[in-house]
Amino acid sequence: MNEAWGAVIAGLAAALGAAVAAWATGRAMARQTLTQGREQQRNWLLDQRQQAYAQLLSATDSVRARLRAVIDMQHGPDFGMGGEHDPDEHAQALVWDPVEAALLDADAAVRRIAIVGPADDTQALAKDVREALQAVVDSRTEYEQRPSTMDACHLAAEQVFKTAEAAFVTKAQWVLHSDEL
After folding, report:
1. Is the pTM of this model over 0.70?
2. Of 129, 20, 21, 150, which Cα lies nearest the Cα of 80?
3. pLDDT confidence of 147, banded at 50, 70, 90?
């Protein structure tokens, strides 16, 4: 009977060992699955943020490039003189409409940044960039001013824009390279 008890105890010990090993393996697999899920979600969020930040910077570049056509028009020899070669409202709309469309793209990027975050000063900096960009555009809309006066206003607005953009880029780099979500 002693040998039988020894076999029963050995069998129970083996079963208990197998159960503990299965439980530990199951917990480790569940923990690994949760960790992988969190990492995938983190990578997705970082990718969304990177795309949103790039969208804002691309839109600002687009506005500034399209604004170049406005500046060229405003520096034309007949601009604001009312002569036959002065750009009419239709011609002005042709150069201003792409600027307005690019500003809408910038607005969309700011809204996207508000969604993907983070909920800190990144959103405020994105809004600052958009507002400074609007000031750059507005500096070119005072048709009653002479081009030289518009140029001075434009340069001042550009400086404010560049400062806001630099602050946003610095913050965006920090967000994309930090371990925090």
Report:
1. no
2. 150
3. low
